[in-house]
Amino acid sequence: MKKVISTPDAPAAIGPYSQAIEANNMVFVSGQLPIDPKTGAFASDEITGQTRQSLENIKSILAAAGLGMGDIVKTTVFLADMSLFGSMNEVYAQYFQGDFPARCAFAVKQLPKDALVEIECIAAR
């Protein structure tokens, strides 16, 4: 059985998908663009601000599921360019305490709305 996770504290889906789905004690969070849910616009034009907003969106969705950043077991980071990796990584590291989740990070040709970063994750109860 699956359960849809949704919160107004993160941007609404911009397509036919859910913010997150819970199944078998796992929460699968859809890729989060750096959209500020209050304004509907990117929080920043810089990779650091965009990374922070994408992670804040994930944090809000996980909170709606009764989970936190420490429950994340895997993330995938999509970057507009690998030259952004170092700056993204500095912000990313601030969101985790103790053991880091498994992660994959790579550059893609283009992200929705020309974002610099998009981050998805899987969390476990």
Structural commentary:
The chain is built from two helices and six strands; from the N terminus they run E-E-E-H-E-H-E-E. By secondary structure, it is an alpha+beta fold. It has a single domain, classed as RutC-like (60s Ribosomal Protein L30, Chain: A, 2-Layer Sandwich). It has a six-stranded mixed β-sheet, with helices on one face. Helix 2 (85-93) links the parallel strand 4 and strand 5 (102-107). The longest helix has 18 residues, at 47-64. The model has no long low-confidence stretch (mean pLDDT 97).
CATH topology: 60s Ribosomal Protein L30, Chain: A
The overall pLDDT, averaged over residues, is 97
State the secondary-structure class: alpha+beta
Helical proportion, percent range: 10-25%
* CATH homologous superfamily descriptor: RutC-like
Question: What is the general shape?
Answer: globular
Report strand order across the widest sheet: 1-2-3-6-4-5
**In percent terms, what proportion of residues is strand?**
25-35%
Total strands: the figure is 6
The radius of gyration computed from the alpha-carbon positions, rounded to a whole number of angstroms, is: 13 Å
Give the quaternary arrangement of the chains.
single chain
Q: Helical element count? A: 2
Low-confidence stretches: none
Order of helices and strands: EEEHEHEE
What CATH architecture would you give?
2-Layer Sandwich
CATH top-level class: Alpha Beta
**Total domains:** 1
